[in-house]
Amino acid sequence: MSRTEPLSIAIIYNLAAQWDRVDVNSVVDGVTSIRGTLEALGHRVTLMRVSEGIGPFVHKIEASQPDLVFNLCEGFAEQSSGEYCVAGLLELLGVPYTGSGPFALALALDKPTAKQLFTAAGLLTPAFAVCREGAPLPSGLSYPLMLKLAGEDASLGISTANVVHDDAAYRSRLQALFAEHHAPVLAEQFIEGREFTVAILDREPIVLEEIVFTVEPKILCYRAKWATGSVEDLGTRAVFDPDVTPTQRKDMFDLAVRATDVIGARDYSRVDFRMNDRGEIYVLEVNPNPDITPNSGYRGSLHAAGIAFPDFVTRVVTCALGRRAVIGA
């Protein structure tokens, strides 16, 4: 796609009614940034807030007939599952759109299923079990454990208390998560060691990032991601030239592509790893359509890789236009 070819592009996004859901509502910064970039590239841009309702959204899409939808939608009606439902709706409408499709978005959000697929593909991932409200505690795992909501992203529900070292802490934190979220919880073996992320652009790994911690436990919790200036935020630092061997770097790049292919993520994504003191690399999860707001980790990866944001946007738009919708409108 040439930058001289103007397109009609609709940027779609959602907002949460809860003012403190920074993980969702920070998308406004991304919308502003991407709108400015697309307009600077010569495109005509329309903003569509999906959270105003599905009916009005469908009407706007059908009335405006955009050449492309830039999908920044993270959910619908306070549900993260709405992310893949909106992508499915775009498929049915026959509109080209950026980012991963509904199946990949659903798989990535379903952490237990994703981990089963990693294992089936021969990728090392921490041992795990699923905890459900009112059911007996799963057995067979050894401490320490990391507790995560089984069907959420953006570190929702993750605090420093989520790393548990005994039965009492395990039961206490589980009950707190059940009481607040009423959803299944993934308990997985906590891998002591270092944490890494690989940013992917169009199936190519672009940079290896290490998250360096000066706080305990060494995890990227919700406050570390979203509470700017907090102890947890200040206790984490991104390093884009980590001290690893060439083989370890290559292995993480290769594993990132393999994990991305397992999930079916496309255009842009991030893959998270932990590496223990024996050098064993564990795939934690794949993040399709990661946050691309100005201060996000992915934007940091683009900068570290020397990729200008307009070039990233152009490449993502080109990828989306090159795909056919499942059902023609």
Structure notes:
- By secondary structure, the chain is of the alpha+beta class.
- The chain has three domains: 8-99 and 311-321, Rossmann fold (3-Layer(aba) Sandwich), CATH 3.40.50; 125-189, ATP-grasp fold, A domain (Dna Ligase, domain 1), CATH 3.30.1490; 192-306, ATP-grasp fold, B domain (D-amino Acid Aminotransferase, Chain A, domain 1, 2-Layer Sandwich), CATH 3.30.470.20.
- Helix content is 37%, strand content 21%.
- The protein has helices at residues 22-25, 27-40, 54-64, 82-93, 102-109, 111-120, 167-181, 222-226, 231-234, 246-263, 297-304, 309-321, and strands spanning 8-13, 44-49, 68-71, 128-131, 145-149, 163-164, 185-189, 194-201, 204-213, 236-239, 268-275, 281-288.
- A five-stranded antiparallel beta sheet has the order 10-9-8-11-12.
- β11 (268-275) and β12 (281-288) form a beta hairpin.
- The longest helix is centred in the last third of the chain and has 18 residues, at 246-263.
- Mean pLDDT is 90; it is low at 325-329.
By DSSP (H or I, 4+ residues per run), the number of helices equals: 12
CATH C-level class of the largest domain: Alpha Beta
From the N-terminal CA to the C-terminal CA, the straight-line distance is 23 Å
Query: What is the CATH fold-level name of the largest domain?
Result: D-amino Acid Aminotransferase, Chain A, domain 1
What is the number of beta strands? 12
- The amount of helix comes to 25-40%
Strand order of the largest sheet: 10-9-8-11-12
**Element order: H for helix, E for strand:** EHHEHEHHHEEEHEEEHHEHEEHH
Q: Helix/strand-derived class?
A: alpha+beta
Mean pLDDT: 90
For the sheet with most strands, the description reads: 5 strands, antiparallel
CATH architecture of the largest domain: 2-Layer Sandwich
Shape: globular
The fraction of residues in strands falls at 15-25%
| CATH homologous superfamily caption of the largest domain | ATP-grasp fold, B domain
Unreliable spans: 325-329
Radius of gyration over C-alpha positions, nearest whole angstrom:
20 Å
In total, how many domains does the architecture comprise?
3
